[in-house]
Target: Ribulose-phosphate 3-epimerase
Amino acid sequence: MKPYIAPSVLSADFANLERDVLMLNQSEADYIHVDIMDGVFVPNISFGIPVTEAIARHATKPLDVHLMIVNPEKYIEAFQKAGAAIISVHYEACTHLHRTIQQIHAAGCKAGVAINPHTPVQLLEDVIEDIDLVCMMSVNPGFGGQKFIENTYKKVKQLKEIITDSGSRALIEIDGGVNGENARPLLDAGADVLVAGNYVFKSADPIYTIAELKRV
Model:
């Protein structure tokens, strides 16, 4: 099966965001990945609800919204109204994770749980059957263009085993440092969705680069 590709607009040209979203519409991308950062949970600020809404107005691909924020439960309905199809919250940011997953589903979105590089995948065992996606960070969250963490392959294999044993249908999404070299090994380990930011938007031909990732 071909991987799902989710280009991250964190690496887009913010002064020409409509142009870059229209480009993604014409590509073989499956989702548009939208990274929301608050400067508290992660040491960077990206954009919020109004920009997500603006992206959604032009996008023909589902928005895969990744909340790297504290108290994400306060903003689930707002991001759903802004156009999110998938909402991922961080395990590390949710005191009542199961309740937040239920809240995302009640809002009509698919629910994802993101985990930082240091977070063991085994901590997801009690919710794996309730979620649609695990967003596994393969860099430390907060900034684009970071170097891929090699231990990710091991974690993907461990998570795939948990998903298979539980009968969960959750997809494994890899976020951070994905490129043409590590894409195939990640898929072989069990990944389903590849988030690519700099690798897509800094390439000479982003549409071609996305197509190559689909066929890796």
